[in-house]
Design brief:
Blueprint (H helix, E strand, L loop, with lengths): L3 H19 L1 H6 L4 H22 L1 H14 L4 E3 L25 E2 L6 E3 L6
Parallel strand pairs: 1-3
Antiparallel strand pairs: 2-3
Helix pairs in contact: 1-3, 3-4
The structure holds zinc ion.
The site of zinc ion (ZN) has 8 residues, from loops.
Length: 119
């Protein structure tokens, strides 16, 4: 099974694509048929359902809340010393959320994406 943070990253990518596809500017250049947009939304909804199963409804709600607030970069690669969303310094010994095993920025709560070990 995919790691939850990889799924969250995918969800964020889908949200970006769906938002772009619906924007007026994009429609002018690359008009996307309704059926294609519907397909993207169905994929997004299926992924949300799976994430709700894996991480719990609360975490997916949290994702939606953060997405509404920031609209970008809410699943970001960890490894830097600074959160690229709020620019606060990340603690060196970051503890994962005990319920989900996910790492979050302590200041702005965005999800931190850990690179695959050995990759
Ligand atoms: Zn932050």
């Amino acid at each position: 099974m995919k790691k939850p943070e990889v799924m969250l990253l995918e969800l964020q990518e889908l949200e970006v694509i769906i938002r772009d596809a619906r924007s007026q500017d994009y429609q002018k250049i690359f008009p996307l048929p309704d059926s294609a947009l519907k397909q993207l939304q169905e994929r997004r909804d299926a992924l949300c359902k799976e994430l709700e199963r894996v991480l719990g409804v609360d975490t997916v709600d949290e994702f939606r809340r953060l997405w509404k607030r920031y609209g970008k970069g809410i699943v970001i690669p960890a490894g830097g010393e600074i959160c690229t969303n709020c620019f606060n310094v990340l603690p060196t010994a970051l503890e994962p959320d005990p319920r989900t095993g996910l790492y979050r920025c302590p200041s702005c709560s965005v999800f931190l994406y850990m690179a695959e070990e050995g990759a």
